[in-house]
Amino acid sequence: MDRDHTRAPDLADMLGGETPDATAEDAPSFLSFERCGRSFAVDAHVVEAIVKTPPVTSIPYPPPSVAGVAPVRGRVRIVICPANEPDTPSARLVLLSGDGQLALAADRVAGIVADPANADTLNPEDLIAG
Amino acid sequence: MDERDLLRQFVDEAEDLVESLHSDLLILSRDPVGGLRPDVLNRVFRSAHSLKGVAGMAGVPSVQRAAHKFEDLLDDVRMGRVRPGPTTLDGCGRVADELGRMIAAVADGADAAAIERDADAVESLVAELRSGAAGAPEAATEAVIDLDEKIRRTFTEYEEHRLQENLNARRPVYELRVAFDLMSFDVGFRGLLERLGAAGEVIGTLPAAGGDDPSRIGFRIIAATNEPQESIDSLIGTLGGTASLISHYPEPIVEPPPEFPADGAGASTAVSVRVDMGAVDDLVYLSRGLALDVAGLAASAEELAVQVGMPSRELFDLKQRARSIERGFSDLEERLVEMRLVPIGQVYGRARRLVGRLAAELGREVDFVTSGEDVRLDKAIVDRISEPIAHLLRNAVDHGIESPDVRRAAEKSATGRIELIAEPRGNRVALIVRDDGAGIDVGAVRRAANAQGLAADESIEAIFAPGVSTAGAVTEVSGRGVGLDAVAAVVAALGGTIAVETERGKGTTFVILLPTTLVMLSVFLVEAAGGLYAIDVNQIGELASLDATYVERAVQATPADCGHVVEWRGESVRLYRLAELVGSDAPSKSSSGVVQCVTVRIWDRDVALSVDRLVGEREAIVKTVGRYMPVLKGVNGAIDIEGGRIALLLDIPGLIAEHRRLWTAAGAGGS
Amino acid sequence: MKKVLVVEDSATTRAMIISIVETLPAVECTDAEDGLAALKALPNDRFDAILTDINMPGLTGLELISFVRSHPSYREIPIIVISTEKAQTDKDRGFALGASDYVTKPFAPMDLQRVVRQHLGI
To answer: Cα–Cα distance between C105 and B608 in angstroms, integer?
Structure first.
């Protein structure tokens, strides 16, 4: 219910009011976004929402890709920078569904694509484990 | 459905099924071997059956296979094809244990081949149980039953078998007819079934359209009971139904079989629903968020009220009302947190079986005594503490309790005693494992500690240090490379403490002190390296101010890997700069010539942490950082602070261990 | 929109069946955790099919089938039994009482979908 005013306007326009998970039917689709000048893509079915980045709290001994933790909608998310530049502030967080409580740092969300040919496709699990 | 969701749901349901296997087997264990209650036995069968089914659906073939073998055995027992012997129930308990371990391994993502081996173990255990039990001949019945073919056709094989059994036992069998209102029949119907179950056994039911009245639903119930027909008539009469005796025996009943007592737990009308723990946590967070909002709103309103010159009486009312809302939220929070609590007695059954099995294997005679079953703890804590408790019990049987001969020679009773006790201590819970065995050889601990390079004056608590063991020989039971250091690490990670007392020849007592919940915690907030950090107040010894130049000298004089040595109240204490521990290279701020410190108790000693500012104590709601929290070193959770900020709840032992590890790694790298 | 009543006492299996059946176009499921809950649910909707387990507490799948087949308003509803291979006798009884089809647990999603489509006529 709070999705409408927290969702990034750029994506809202592109999807014509559809939320990313509403497109979760069958065909493969990816959310593509930019971070530190590079293009990334993540399976759109695991995207819960996109929000403005709140203040990020840094953590002791972070793994190389982890910027810290941030409170989003009552839960604490682990903020991951796919470009491994955790110190560079980000504009948006791509929230991933599931009990991992992960969020990807993004500078700009490009849209939903069927084929992420020109982007690095991310497996969120690897980002934190590796 | 998402793979992981499916797996988690499977684990949830499978754990529940194993739990009910255990509790039903416990109920059966109070029945005579020859007279196991059929309804409870059937529930045991159904739990195994459901476990097989759900494992198959979730794609966990190892559990499916193991549960299938178990189900087959239980089916034969409930159908009277296999007669249980004196050890059958105990064996079933071991199978349930094994299944529980397999499910835990699945949940932890353990190696599939290893779980397959566990399934093999279950299979051979079941085969063993089969060979220990006897086949049962089907008794011939001379009874005549006056039953509509239509009803009999709806009977499952099991229901048919139960009918035969009751006829063989010459119990009177009734057919009851009763109709209920279609919209609300379930309450009355379930009540009737429970009542009949308590009086005897419900064999089968057949719902039917309610005849002329489409708003009613009719039932025909076949039930066996030794209660006099008048009481059955009056029971069904109050519901507007009828009862007729349909069993006819050629001669009068000589000896009625023992009545099956009502199962108190099963007959209760308590209703429960399964709630995902994460959903409860979300409600706790939400409640706390609303409470903070109300506090903020009240403060603004008060400010405004003062500005417009509101009379003091109304201002007072306003404050009162705001406070009452805040109190409401804090009550709500507490109730919600209570939903996470489960009785510690959940692990006692497993503990009892473990002790019994080990004592038999090792030739010990042990009285196992438990108390405090009802003491409640956060489910997350209960889940994580059960293995450490099992470890302490294994040690108690293996290294504590002596063999009967040795005990007699020492003029002790041949039977040793092991106690597992839970008791509330303020807002914490003490778990005590006590044995009256040989005690721990303190000298040996000291020598082992010395060999590990630990200081010679280390007390008995050195047994919690990694690599220190007192076991003379590596035995089958305890020598698995997991020592008391692992126990201590789990306890510390849960924010608890562990202590030991021992006397040669008299016995050993371990006391584990744990928080009741991981969600609601008193924390002390400190500031370091520009961030706010929270420390569990139960871990804090005292607050201290040290002279800045003195600390500076100590920091210069000693390397940081094991902390800088400072004198505090006449004792050497290790001091760490918290900023350094959290990985910041920001210089410490000490304008006033003093350094603020807190002392934190880690296992057996105090360490001092220097911070930039002591902020204060507060009741906090600790939020989890999710499944990947273990990846984040030294963090036990996060706490919301006004203004949308977060304070990390620190795991101080974890932080120090990580600090040392990095320091050593850097040293080894030649830097 | 076709309505399907799913009767199954295992929450996990129930959720799986529903997620598989609901991927069929224009199919909506109602769930019931045992035979009694199914009896409660029946008058609330016009169901196009019932999927039921057999071994359930309270009221078994066989008893449910017998009721549905005896009731003038429900007797035409196709009933698909979803149960394990173990209970061969119970399977035979299910057919004798008027079950329309039988799917063995565990099943492949495609198989269940095929059987359900067939009985829904889609």
So the answer is: 61
DSSP codes of every residue in B507-570: EEEEEEEEES-SSEEEEEEEEETTEEEEEEGGGEEEEEEEEHHHHHHHHHHS-STT-EEEEETT
Among the listed residues B178, B176, B185, the one whose alpha carbon sits nearest the alpha carbon of residue B227: B176
| pLDDT recorded at residue B460 | 64
Cα–Cα distance between B244 and B231 in angstroms, integer? Answer: 12
∠ Cα B471 B477 B478 (to 5°):
40
- Quick check: bond before C106 cis, omega within 30? yes
Cα separation, B210 vs B219, in Å, equals 8
Q: What is the ipTM of this complex?
A: 0.85
Q: Is C72 on the interface with B (CB under 8 A)?
A: yes
Q: Are B50 and C93 a contacting pair at CB < 8 A?
A: no
CA separation, residue B312 to residues A99, B295, B305, B324 (Å) = 50, 19, 9, 18
Is B76 within 8 Å of chain C by CB?
no
Asked if B508 and B396 count as a contact pair (C-beta separation under 8 A), the reply is: yes
If you count them, how many residues does chain C have? 122
Residue with structure tokens 């969020």? Answer: A103
What region does B527 belong to: left with phi over 0, alpha with psi -120 to 50, or beta? beta
Please write the tens of the pLDDT for every residue from B363-411.
899 999 999 988 999 888 998 898 899 989 998 998 889 999 999 998 9
Q: What is the DSSP letter of B133?
A: S
Subunits in contact with chain B (3 or more CB pairs closer than 8 Å): A, C
Beta bridge partners of B248: B144
Tokens 């084929």 belong to residue: A115
Query: Would an 8 Å CB–CB cutoff place B167 in contact with chain C?
Result: no
B157 touching C, CB under 8 A? yes
Residue with tokens 């500005």: B307
Pairing of strands B531-536, B645-650: parallel
Q: Which two tokens stand for residue B249?
A: 């025996």
Element (H, E) at B221: strand B216-225
Q: How close are the terminal C-alpha atoms of chain C, in Å? A: 11
What pLDDT, in 10s, does the model give residues C42-63?
Answer: 888 899 999 999 888 878 898 8
Given B581, B626, B640, which is nearest A100 (Cβ)?
B626
CB contact under 8 A, B207 and C106: no
The identity of residue B4, as a single letter, is R
Q: For residue B607, report the phi and psi dihedrals to the nearest 5 degrees.
A: -120, 155
CB atoms closer than 10 angstroms to residue A2: 9
Query: What is the spatial distance between Cα B400 and Cα B409, in angstroms, rounded to a whole number?
Result: 16
Contact B178, B249 (CB under 8 A): no
Chain C CB contacts of B188 under 8 Å are none
Cα dihedral angle (C96, C99, C103, C104), rounded to 10 degrees? -40
- Dump pLDDT digits (tens) for A31-67: 889 999 999 999 888 888 888 899 999 999 888 889 9
**pLDDT band per the 50, 70, 90 thresholds, residue B452:** low
